[in-house]
Amino acid sequence: MFFHIVLERNMQLHPRHFGRNLRDNLVSKLMKDVEGTCSGKHGFVVAITGIENVGKGLIRDGTGFVTFPVKYQCVVFRPFKGEILEAVVTMVNKMGFFAEAGPVQIFVSNHLIPDDMEFQSGDMPNYTTSDGSIKIQKDSEVRLKIIGTRVDATEIFCIGTIKDDFLGVINDPTA
Amino acid sequence: MSIEPFNRLVKLAARAFYDDYTTKGDNQQKIGRSDNRGMAVVILDALTRRQWVREEDLAKDLKIHTKQLRRTLRFFEEEKLVTRDHRKETAKGAKLYTAAVAATTEVHHGKEGDDKVKLHTHSYCCLDYAQIYDVVRYRLQRMRKKLRDESEGKNTIQEYVCPNCGRRYNALDALRLVSMEDEFFHCENCNGELVAESDKLSVPEGGDADDNARRRRREKIKDMLQKMDTQLKPLIEQLNLVKDIPIPEFGNLLAWEARASAAGRAGNGSNSNDPSKSSQGYGGVPLLYLGETKVEVAFSGVDGKEEDAKSVSAGVGLKVLPPWMIKQGMNLTEEQRGEVKQESKMDGSSSSGFSDDKKTVSEDDEKKSLQDEYARAYYAAILEQQAALEAANKQQEVLETSDLNGPYESSPQRQVGMKFKREDNEGDDDVDWEEAPLGGESSNWVFVLAKKTVALSVLVLSEKEVPLLASNETSESYRVHDLNEEAKATPEDEDDDIDWEEG
User: Fold this and answer.
1) B355 falls in which pLDDT band (50, 70, 90)?
2) Across the interface, do B183 and A95 touch by the CB < 8 Å criterion?
3) What are A73-111's pLDDT values in tens digits?
4) Which residues form a coiled coil (chain B) (predicted)?
5) Residue A42: helix, strand or coil by DSSP?
6) Band of the pLDDT at A112, cuts 50, 70, 90?
7) Which three-class secondary structure string do you get for B331-400?
């Protein structure tokens, strides 16, 4: 799920960036550092939408670096258990398939794939129904439900299922 | 003693969950005789009746092998039902304080330096009620969750097991397990192929996509859920009853021992050997179990051990005091003087008399002193009338002494019996006999009732001059136990042609 929240970070700036464009430099540095990262607590930071305020800079002892506490607004993405997402299949395996929903990777084990879908290996391994009507292969779009998340310090990983109603393939690239 | 609902909870839980626990391995044969399933229930039940108990003692009580017991207790410890404490102690007979000290200070000294002091590790165990309550609830919750998950079409996280090293993985670990070469997950240690763990409760029917199969599975699970609810209903009810009651807490082994020994010591005032006697490390507790002639005082620190308070039973009876132990003024009963106990009836009546006395000791004291003087004068008169009116006097004395003695109705009868043997000095015997019981009323209580300080004061105050054993000589059965007793110089004595015997 997406959230728009205010986060805070201490940015260190090298003296070479001081001058007229100090603030701009600070903001661009912030964006470079933060966008695309993930924190276990907030989730993935998708984009920074604005700077709320920049505090007074503190000159570090020994080096000339200056630390600014910056408050900024950003869009974050965090998956939750029980959430339903659309994802794109990236890899199909005998044990299940991997899908990506933006920055987060989701694994659906074969145990949670409907019983009527069998694995078929080949150069394009896929899961397919007995009558061949539904196929899950690389790059198919799939709607799945998250049943578990694993949150590390800088990484989030999910387990999903397509065994419930209204879940499964949405869009088949080959069809 | 722990509160009854908790014990009931433990018993129900034991029978619900552990009744098929066996100490034999899975491969061993369980023949009829050697099959010990249900051992766990027996042990848990035994533990509900005890608090902190040494494992060897428990094994002895239950008549099972120490090793089996230990295995079971280890299992319980893992299940969080029981807390155990292992500590080094000197062998049997060690004093509690040594044990406590040794446990807290350097044990090396004892072990290496001193030959005689060998420190063995003793293990103690006790039921942990707080944990039991939580553990049982958690177990029930997990059971229900599992069944619900299964019935809801498996929104469960897949588990993988490595057949080589047995390492378990979760589907959440899948990312780091995926291998490039082939399509299986590989173990991190041994690179073996992981096997998915199949459905535990409802057996999957081989990829059967039939709706029927699924429905059957769901029904099976619903059945299981229902059965579980009905069979576990008493346990769940007991849990609800118990949740509002404060949990009995025995504390850590040392704290409990300290409390128990303090309580024991308070209950048995003169018995200062409690800690050393308790080779079992219970302090005064084993005495509680014997429940004999001890008065249990409700000590402030102790929880509820002294509920069965103040019942003094003279069941065991009092020790016969050797002559050298008897000092002047000691209030002794005939028993303590080593006299024969005639009939149980007598004892019964005297003991019942005793228990009445307990409450009215203080009042009786005054009466006694008056009675003593009265008796003395009376007996003096009797002596004069020995020869002629023995029989009649005796009866009168009996009556009067019975009045005087109050509770001691039995004693005159006794004396009557004894006096019948001799015709000579029955009157004399009376004199001495009466003194003893009157004086000796509260002696027993001194040793048993620490609480009754009144009794103590009585002992101190009652330094009456026990009138001489003027007539000791006569009855062979009569012995002088009080060496301090002096013969009264009465004129009548000189006239006696009885030989005085100082015992």
Assistant:
1) very low
2) yes
3) 999 999 999 999 999 999 898 888 999 999 999 999 888
4) none
5) coil
6) confident
7) CCCCCCCCCCCCCHHHHHHHHHHHHHHHHHHHHHHHHHHHHHHHHHHHHHHHHHCHHHHHHHHHHHHHHH
Chain A residue with minimum CA distance to B170: A159
Q: What is the pTM of this model?
A: 0.47
What residue of B is the nearest CA neighbor of A125?
A: B183
Q: What would the mean pLDDT of A21-44 be, rounded to a whole number?
A: 92
Does the distance separating the beta carbons of A98 and B178 come in below 8 Å?
A: yes
CB contact under 8 A, A96 and B175: no
Average pLDDT of the segment spanning B450-469 = 47
- In 3-state terms, what secondary structure has residue B462? coil
Query: Which residues are within 8 A (CB) of B152 and not within 5 positions of it... i.e. 6 or more apart?
Result: none
Q: Which residue has the tokens 């006096």?
A: B419
Smallest Cβ–Cβ distance between B196 and the set A95, A105, A157 belongs to: A95
Q: In whole angstroms, how far apart are CA B147 and each of B155, B226, B490?
A: 11, 10, 98
Tokens at A2, concatenated: 């997406």
Nearest by CB to A93, from B155, B158, B183: name it: B183
Contacts with A113 from chain B: Cβ below 8 Å: none
ipTM of the predicted assembly exceeds 0.85? no
Q: CB neighbours of B497 closer than 8 A, spacing ≥ 6?
A: none
Q: How close, in Å, is residue B140 to chain A by CA atoms?
A: 23
Contact across the interface for A125 and B183, Cβ inside 8 Å = yes
Does B184 reach chain A within 8 Å, measured CB to CB? yes
